[in-house]
Amino acid sequence: MKLIVGVMEARNIPAMDINGFSDPYVKLQLGKQRYKTKVVKKTLNPSWGEEFSFKVEDLNEELLISVLDEDKYFNDDFVGHLKISISQVFDAHNKSLGTAWYALHPRNKKMKNKDCGEILLNIYFSLNNSFLDLNCNGVGDHASTLKKHEDMATNDLSRPFSGSSNSSSASIQDDNVSSNSKEEKSSAQKSLAGRITQMFNRNFDTAPTTSARGTDLTEIPEISSADVVDNKFDDQSSSFEEAVEALCSRDQGSEVPSNLPGGVLLDQLYVIAPKELNSLLFSPDSAFPRSVSELQGSTDPQFGPWKFENGGESLKRIYSYIRAPTKLIKAVKATEEHTYIKADGKTFAVLAVVSTPDVIYGGTFKTEVLYCITPGPELPSGEQSSHLVISWRTNFLQSTMMKSMIENGTRQGLKESFEHFTTLLEQTIKLVDPKDIGLNKEQLLGSLQAEPQSDWKLAVQYLANFTMASTVLMSLYVIVHICLSGPSTIQGLEFIGLDLPDSIGELIVCAVLVLQGERVLQLISRFMHARVQKGNHGVKAQGDGWLLTVALIEGSNLAAVDSSGFCDPYVVFTCNGKTRTSSIKYQKSSPQWNEIFEFDAMKEPPSVLDVEVFDFDGPFDEPTSLGRVEVNFVRSNISDLADVWVPLQGKLAQACQSKLHLRIFVENTRGGNVVTEYLKKMEKEVGKKINVRSPQTNSTFQKLFGLPPEEFLINDFTCHLKRRMPLQGRLFLSPRIIGFHANLFGHRTKFFFLWEDIEDIQVFPPTLASMGSPVIVVTLRPGRGLDARHGAKTQDEEGRLKFHYQSFVSFNVAHRTIMALWKARALSPEQKVQIVEEESESKGLQSEESGSFLVLEDVSMSEVYSCVLPIPIGSVMALFSGGELEYKAMKRGGGLNYSCTPWESEKPDVYERQVHYRFDKRVSGYRGEVTSTQQKSPLPDKNGWLIEEVMTLHGVPLGDYFNLHLRYQIEDLHSRAKGCQVRVFFGIAWLKSTKHEKRVANNIISNLEDRLKVIFGVVEKEYTAR
Which of 59, 127, 687, 755 could be joined to 825 by an S-S link, Cβ 3.0–4.6 Å? Predict the structure, then answer.
């Protein structure tokens, strides 16, 4: 959702300069987004008339507006400021504060000017603009002139649109509004993203919208046709189709919203026109929503009419029903608000927000689900196809310790709910056959033909300019002058055959003629050399493997660098070190190419395609870059690249909003044995067997990092990511990426970068800080992998990010695998020769990664130990203080070489530390090692402490298959003078499946109970002995 802020004018600004005036301008900041207006000189009542657009992701943020006085030689003077809560705008009627005057406040009470003036602002949420900015830059419209808006609250018209099937449901809603409107209204006005949804919920059909208002039909006012006679859509019998057509007619070319960050629930192509699919999913006359509701077990579905709001700019409806009961939650009432955020006849985007206030913690969160329908590829049969993508996210209205549990319950509920949705939709509509899409590529490319132009026509077009015309006229003038003039007398230093200028005027004329002639020769030379450069259009690819085909259709708004106001652009494509160059288009700012380029077949799928547009400036001059863009195949769905406009990056390109129209296809010509062949190749490099992962495992891996279907998992390792504090998680390796994922105490850390981004990989020897483990340091190239910078330990002056990985269960295997994949993907043949291959650790290495990978989720905890100790809580907490008692108790409990780091504050009242020790032989015959992360925080009632621990076992069988989770709850007993209660909870997070899960769990629990008795027994004995 976008927040629009109009900065219109100000009045009574205090004079900050000695001339009695100010040079005011306005700064606006929301989170990390910052904008600035123009400076208005010498005035106390400035007028700006500018509008800015902010991307909103958190309703708890505040918009900071500051007015400053520009000073040329010193720091700008502060005039006044004000803060506006985003939730205030969102909760306002029509999500608009209207146009209003706001008083500016001084920075602090000590400022001399208490009266800082007033500023006129127009602040509102826009639902018609793209809901999520595809470029993620949030660029504001600095140059746009702000129109005078009247207060939206006084001009809002609500116009209902419903078919005949809606009359009964609407009347039912009207009968029930009196009993529950207050309750639902109060619970609905606190947030942007919805309060969804049914933790641990099984059934969920449509989903939420950004509007946090209106959970009841009575909150959407109806206006009689007499009030809006002039509007042809005010008839109550108007159909849903007419309402959508009216909305399409108002579309101003806004961008298609990008997927929500929670994940993609459905991504499929269907043989149906986009308009028909939209009607099937959202028309009041459609039976599909009711069938889905029945399949999910929901009862009493009531669909409200579609209504226009915000002066006809948005189309909304309310849908309520009774959720089916689950094992943990009774049947509850759910209310959904559906809002069209884009509709242009071909593309439809509907945002749904579900409100379930009766669910546990239902007032702390909402979930949004985005339905996006776009045109699919044209099929050989001539039928139309549609691409349906459904994505979701959860927004929390307030902080809660149950955040992770709520997210997991929501995720599970959505997953199960949309399984019903997908099954029913596939039974209703035919899926697109992948073979038909392959044929479509040939049809799309076959229709492209470059426009043939004769050299004479191009020469006239290129050379017909002022320079050539003026040169021709001057040449004719000089020739006529020579013919009419007689021979001049020899004077000065002249001699026969040498005629020098006789005056300053003649010298200037000669210089102008020479310079003009030189410019003409340069133009002719550039034209001749450009005609020689025909590009690589039509060159066929060689070999068998991954084939990349790029069709360059056209460009739009390319920057003009010539004095003529045009440019001579050509495009260079680079992939895996190979380049393809287009032809040059003369004097064009929006050129048409229609050229096809094929890259020779590659052994591995391509990761990145670099596209750069240059302006041709002669064979010996450095070409000027008009903009560049990087097409990332790992972050993009290949089907989405079949026909795409890509915006160019760079100062010139962004200033002109330059774009290229491309059609990109990647296909594998080697058949279905690509994965097996690649793994066999890697086995030779690594020196160990690598098993092919199951389709379910690869699908989970792809969803975890948002990867395309062709990406597959090679291996994964448990390790620690070293930042300020070590973070325990898993490292994932695939042919194109290296990724890390951790879920520690409900806080998720996830990132990945490309193998091509890596500049160097080093191994540092073990140290005390690394818990006795070697450290793998991965250094990226300057400016690369910026999306993963939150996982980097350091960044040098040149912008290189460095990632530190340590505490691998099998360091040698992990290191060899990482080096093999890096060498295969990122290094040139010369670099590969320079790197000496490591010798294998042993010839008979067994496969350790035979299990299937499971996503790390929150663990089910059960109580394994409980006791009441007749000692103060402070004495018990000494067990976690790093003192003598802790070392003695752990040694008695079977922990040798015990070491721990000091507690460090992560945030208020939350502390974290690392622990490392080795098992005694009587505890484990394998004498394995333990590395763990402990987090300490006070109980909610401040009556004790909560210590959570995530533990990894090294050097024991199947130690890489699981993590151990412990929770120590130590609570003071007020009923006793000296006493506290200790409760210990335990759970296992299985990282990979194995048939020995039950046996391993029973063995660990039995051992853990004995150790806890010994440890807390030592604490009690030491206190008594004092």
Answer: 755
